[in-house]
Amino acid sequence: MRYQRPKGTADIMPDQSAKWQYVEQTARALFRKYRYQEVRTPIFESFEVFSRTSGETSDIVTKEMYDFYDKGDRHITLRPEGTAGVVRAFVENKLYGPEVTKPVKTYYMGPMFRYERPQSGRLREFHQIGVEAFGVDNPTLDVEVMAMAVELLESFGLTSLKLALNTLGDADSRAAYRQALIDYLTPFKDQLSDDSKERLTKNPLRILDSKDEGDQAIVANAPKILDYLTAEAKEHFQVVRDLLDQLGINYEIDTNMVRGLDYYNHTIFEIMSDAKAFGGKWTTVCAGGRYNGLVEQLGGPETPGIGFGLGVERLLLILADQDLDLEDNLDVYVVGIGQATNAESLKLVQSLRKQGFSAERDYLNRKPKGQFKTASKLNARFTITIGESELESGTANLKDMQAQSEIKVSLAEIYADFAKLAQAKVSEE
């Protein structure tokens, strides 16, 4: 039998993982500036966590969830997105308490699972980086979250970005708009796709996001939600727009944009890129919005929230064209000549590592020529060579691989302070 990874998954090999680490480390550094802290939730949750929050008519619930019954007959789901699990953890751990500073700012990183047709940048096991902030209904936080998302993408070197913005309004706005859509779409019912026919009475807003060309033609002249906003919802959206203008963040209003999950309200947004990886076509890399009411759905008190999610695989497709500084050069390679130097070589690399240097040695009992070849391949900055005579005299040969110059040093100096020794060597050159 030939064993292969499951369809829609990928092996992240050592030569690729450097980019993954770069993305994660860059995100962590930025989130730290904004005072977001990491939360880690289980990869699987109770089915109801997602069926209740994502919406019974959403594609995730009806078509894409990996769900099963475990040995205790519990209905379990591999998480298809990050927000609902974070909200569940927020409620279960009572982070809404009065003693907790608001907003509660969190971020997450990890794998998600959706059963869908695998394609470039869209796998069945995929990875997201996301943020969630709870406890503040101020539109200023909406703008801060969007500004952070834009800054994150720009920090990866992305220059051609487009921020698409819309609002889903409050409950009253949405109810009025929902009825207006039903009234408009009902005469076209027989012309709608099968999915949209089902959504017409359950969640007509999702028809606006349909990829079916016939549906798109029908909704082109549909009512716009901006005409159905309550005074409060209109003010919230206007403040968001004003603050984006004041920060100099360009955006476009897309009144047909909705989110694939039913829990969103008020501000929603997508950040798109037209990178070469997408054939120059604007493609969403990051998306999010406000979800007041979601905490209550999972048993918590009335608590507003807002966040975004970023697809790591899709981002990496863009970064494939970027000249990233991901060099992983080696500080020191220890060349041991003869079996008698084995223990000392191990002591040297361990000492160097404890002093903060990356260090490697030979494990195959190769001749010096082969070891120096490996040192060059690994871009070692220095080599330390010891043979039996050096072992007896307590010395070693320190070579600067860039300058191709070499001096004899004592082992005691290496063990005591290699940084000082290396700096002296560099200064000498």
N→C terminal distance: 58 Å
Global Rg: 28 Å
**Count of helices?**
15
Helix vs. strand class:
alpha+beta
Shape: elongated
What's the name of the CATH homologous superfamily of the domain at 16-40 and 86-170 and 230-319? Answer: Bira Bifunctional Protein, Domain 2
Beta-strand residue percentage: 15-25%
Level of helix content? 25-40%
Overall CATH class of the domain at 16-40 and 86-170 and 230-319: Alpha Beta
**Number of DSSP strand runs:** 16
The CATH topology of the domain at 16-40 and 86-170 and 230-319, please? Answer: BirA Bifunctional Protein, domain 2
Biggest sheet, spatial arrangement of strands: 1-5-6-11-10-9-7-8
Mean pLDDT score: 91
Structure description:
Belongs to the class-II aminoacyl-tRNA synthetase family. One of its GO terms (molecular function) is ATP binding. It catalyses: tRNA(His) + L-histidine + ATP = L-histidyl-tRNA(His) + AMP + diphosphate + H(+). It is found in: Cytoplasm. It is an enzyme of class 6 (ligase). The structure is a single chain. The protein has 429 residues and is of the alpha+beta class. Among the domains are: 16-40 and 86-170 and 230-319, Bira Bifunctional Protein, Domain 2 (BirA Bifunctional Protein, domain 2), CATH 3.30.930.10; 332-428, 3-Layer(aba) Sandwich (Rossmann fold), CATH 3.40.50. It is 39% helix and 21% strand. The chain contains 15 helices and 16 strands. An 8-stranded mixed sheet has the order 1-5-6-11-10-9-7-8, sandwiched between helices. The chain has a 5-stranded mixed sheet with strand order 13-12-14-15-16, sandwiched between helices. The protein has a 3-stranded antiparallel sheet with strand order 2-4-3. The longest helix is centred in the first third of the chain and has 20 residues, at 14-33. It is elongated and about 95 Å long. The mean pLDDT is 91.
